[in-house]
Specification:
The complex is a heterodimer of chains A (about 100) and B (about 450). Chain A contains three helices and three strands; from the N terminus they run αββαβα. Chain A has about 100 residues and is an alpha+beta fold. Chain A has a single domain, classed as GMP Synthetase, Chain A, domain 3. Chain A is globular. With about 450 residues, chain B is mainly alpha-helical. Chain B has a domain of about 150 residues. Chain B contains 14 helices and no strands. In chain B, α2 packs across α11 and α11 packs antiparallel against α12. The chains are: A alpha+beta (about 100), B mainly alpha (about 450). At the A-B interface, α2 of A face α2 and α11 of B.
Chain lengths: ~100, ~450
């Protein structure tokens, strides 16, 4: 049940896109971790640039998207820049479509 | 600090700056000031200050109110300074221009407009310096150091400009007269070189790395670029002031400052090439492609300066040198970055609050690059043609080039207004439920 809730939250987070890259935060590898316990969801995520005005909107967007999932009682989103995001975290198919340089 | 707020008045600054750019281009097309008039004439003073304060400084201040918090990942020291500063700068510039028009006999003799304008500009820029300086000072690393040096240079520019304004009104005694007679190169170097160029360099490091997903330039490496540029400006102003006081050696001081300035531009070129070659996004958006034409113009400024000095023709062609620096390097970069910044901020303002609740477009869905490209390309071509016209002593050809630049800026501003109005966003995504269309001239709370 818990892992199913995590999967549904992960799907819901696909509604949140990085405005610059135009892809959702799950495929971009921004979402580092999702845990759920008795309907309380904790999401740990990142963004490309600390201090960027988009970062706050990404956090609020993730919280709003997670809160729409049935079974979620509370959604807590933590932003972290440790480790720093890297294009190698992007899903390979999306990475190719975004025209990224080959990454290690 | 995770994210910073949207700056409420950045769009207002951009709109005011673009209005002044049209005034400047109108003056060039009409043949007011240099090269039709003397380079030191009151009409040329009007033209230069419309460009440097009205257009470039207001655009730079508007951008800095948004981006200094991004550079230091801290909120702005105060949200309350931006609008009063814009009002003071606008009234101060109008008063200064009125004073210049009096000097030229185009208005009745009310020379007190000059010191009044200077005081208003000092207070207006003072608010900007305090707000941005105290913000950048919280974390003076990387590009924020460029901004701090730029703001210090702005202070030096203001002090010299205020002395000139009081001297022109006859209120500065014999010392003011001496400073006015020899100090104009120092005022120009501090303003164009220190304030506008070093600040543009600093902001560009962050913007280029951020939008191309390139690693930040190593702090020590950009620090050397900044140190050489800062020494060039500080040496020009401090040693230049001493040379003016001693009535000797100013040309030597300016020559040394020129060499240091060229070295700083070369180091900056090395840093920018590094950012481009290490970028992770291979595709270059329009603003980046056009920024490369500004970097080429900066290289052209350096080479032109070297060539003119080598042939002993610098003073006779300082107008062409300044024209390429102002319109090719600085104005081209500001226009290209405005195109991107307006789209990015408009996206954040409109779609940020509904993210996760409704489907949203990408930033690139707000722009129509294919349509905008021609305006930028022709703009740069017209600037380079205008520089050639000035070097060739063809004022009529410069006016034609300025007319072409004006048409292109109209085209670019039309594109920017379309971005702000979400005119190119496909219907289903344009205004999702809960989203509010942005105001053209300011960010809604």
């Amino acid at each position: 049940m818990t892992s199913e809730l995590v999967d549904r939250v992960r799907d819901a987070l696909r509604a949140v896109i990085d405005p610059e890259l135009g892809e959702n935060i799950v495929d971009l590898g921004f979402v580092y971790d999702i845990t759920a316990e008795a309907g309380a969801v904790r999401i740990t995520m990142t963004a490309t640039t600390p201090g960027c005005p988009a970062t706050g909107f990404l956090r609020e967007g993730a919280q709003a998207a997670a809160s729409t999932v049935s079974g979620v009682v509370s959604a807590d989103v933590t932003m972290t820049f440790e480790p720093a995001w890297d294009p190698s975290y992007i899903e390979p198919a999306v990475r190719a479509s975004l025209g990224f340089a080959a990454v290690n | 600090m995770i994210g910073t707020n949207l700056s409420r008045w950045t769009m207002t600054y951009f709109a005011a700056a673009l209005a002044w750019l049209f005034v400047a281009l109108g003056l060039l097309v009409a043949g007011v000031g240099y090269p039709a008039g003397d380079i030191a004439s009151p009409d040329t003073l009007v033209l230069v200050h419309v460009i440097c304060i009205g257009w470039l400084s207001l655009a730079m201040c508007g951008a800095l109110f948004q981006f200094v918090p991004v550079l230091v990942a801290k909120p702005l020291f105060s949200d309350k300074c931006a609008l009063p500063a814009l009002a003071l700068l606008t009234v101060g510039l109008l008063s200064l221009l009125g004073g210049f028009l009096c000097l030229g006999g185009r208005l009745p003799p009310t020379l007190w407009l000059l010191p009044l304008g200077a005081i208003l500009l000092v207070v207006g820029f003072g608010l900007v310096v305090l707000d941005l300086g105290l913000t950048a000072w919280l974390r003076p690393i990387g590009p924020a150091r460029f901004v701090l040096v730029g703001l210090a240079s702005l202070c030096a520019t203001m002090v010299l400009g205020a002395i000139f304004a009081f001297a022109l009104a006859g209120w500065a005694g014999s010392v003011g007269g001496v400073v006015l007679a020899s100090g104009i190169p120092l005022h120009a170097i501090a303003g164009l070189g220190g304030w506008l160029t070093l600040t543009a360099m600093g902001v560009s490091y962050r913007l280029l790395a951020m939008f191309m997903l390139a690693p930040d330039v190593d702090d020590r490496q950009s620090g050397v670029t900044l140190a050489v540029g800062a020494v060039a400006v500080a040496f020009a102003v401090a040693s230049g002031a001493l040379a003016i006081g001693l009535a000797a050696g100013l040309q030597i001081v300016l020559s040394i400052a020129g060499v240091l300035g060229i070295a700083s531009a070369a180091l900056y070129g090395r840093d920018v090439v590094g950012i481009f070659s290490n970028r992770k996004r291979r595709h270059l958006e329009l603003n980046m492609r056009m920024a490369t034409l500004s970097f080429a113009s900066l290289a052209g400024v350096a080479l032109l300066g070297i060539a003119l000095v080598a042939f002993g023709a610098f003073l006779a062609n300082v107008g062409a040198f300044a024209f390429l620096a102002i319109f090719g390097w600085l104005s081209g970069l500001v226009l290209a970055k405005l195109y991107k910044i307006v789209a990015f901020l408009t996206w954040l303002e409109t779609y940020g609050p509904v993210m996760g609740r409704a489907p949203t477009p990408r930033v690139q869905d707000l722009v129509a690059e294919d349509r905008a490209t021609k305006w930028f390309v022709i703009y740069y071509a017209a600037v380079w043609a205008g520089t050639a016209a000035l070097l060739g002593g063809e004022p009529a050809a410069l006016r034609v080039a300025a007319a072409a630049m004006t048409v292109c800026v109209v085209g670019i501003v039309h594109e920017i207004v379309r971005i702000r109005r979400l005119a190119d966003v496909a219907r289903p995504l344009r205004l999702p439920v809960g989203a509010v269309a942005p105001h053209l001239l300011f960010a809604r709370k």
